[in-house]
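Handout, section B. The chain below has 401 residues.
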Amino acid sequence: MDVGMNEAQKTVGYMTPEREMLRRIARDFTDKEVLPVANELDPKKEAIPQSLIDQMGELGFFGIVIPEEYGGAGLGAFEYCLVAEELARGWMSVASIIARGNGFYRSIPFEGEERVKRIRLMAQGKYLGALAMSEPEVGSDISSITCRARMEDDHWVITGNKYWCTFADGANFIQVIARTEGDPTKRHAALTGIGIEKPPGELPEGVTGSPIPKIGYHGWKTWELHFENVRVPITKRQKEARGQAFYGMARGLESARAHTAARSIGLAQGALEQAIAYSRERIQFRRPIADFQAIRFKIANMAAEVEAARQLNYSVCARIDSGVSAAKEAAMVKYFAAEMSERVCSDALQVLAGAGYTTDYPVERYWRDARLTKIFEGTSEIMLKIVSDALLGKPSRRSQA
């Protein structure tokens, strides 16, 4: 059931015919391919099938923002988030894995033609990345990263621990954010991104780790990793970008947070559709529960919340694609959509009542995954800090007596 935009809305405002066509392709793919796989495999905590990844590659979902000269579509954050929203309506992990292409093509650890070759493969979903940034004691404050990389001859030698590295095993390379300067006054300007290529299905040589037990976000594994004197050839690009990882990550956060908002909206949309369908089918007191005002008003409120978040994200994506700074707005939509998603998914579960608390329906999956959107890519509390600092300035520091 499509409870999104009606026919009259498709060619006005943000939704051009081309975008509507892309949205329809992603929606049809989700209905026919993603939802059945998710409903079967998520309860078993099994991996996203390679065949599904291959199909997404053929549709160009991994290369939406990759420039055309590298085999991508050369589109923007808007189209990227449009596809992500639809995929998340089926399985958030599938909506997330496309970032392993779209968000990683600048990080490929090679030069010249070898780099171009790998970007082209990435646009097809055949060469994907993973990010090792967080650490056991480091979350939002990435300037406190302790994993070290020292230069030895023409190699980096990496030692330290990383946490929350999703897809570390399945990726073709891992982008490690490591401290390459010892000066404690250079907290931000001492971090470098170092790419480590490896065979998919394995961890890099010298890296050990174990999967982190999660309550959701199934379909792939999230790892704790230990690097012990891991040697990586130093590329010219890495030399030139030495000490710039913090600033590069900051520049990419606008699109990343819009992408998280899109995933949140997709989860909520999926839950809303399930609630509508179930309310029409479930008979109580000789009537479908969709006839009862309590259910009708709940669903109406859910739909309003989803659409409000969607339109805000469209606005943020348009701003990003125009090249205007959207740090505050991206934080706003990430916060608003994540909080909305958990509420709407919880309300959908309530509409389904006991049925919603089973794995027979995807609502419980949407609910579990929506909870995560309030944590990754910056917690809701961090988003509020960013927005309040933008509006009010940073808090004053009182002098200590």
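Note. The radius of gyration is 22 Å. Compare this with the example in section A.
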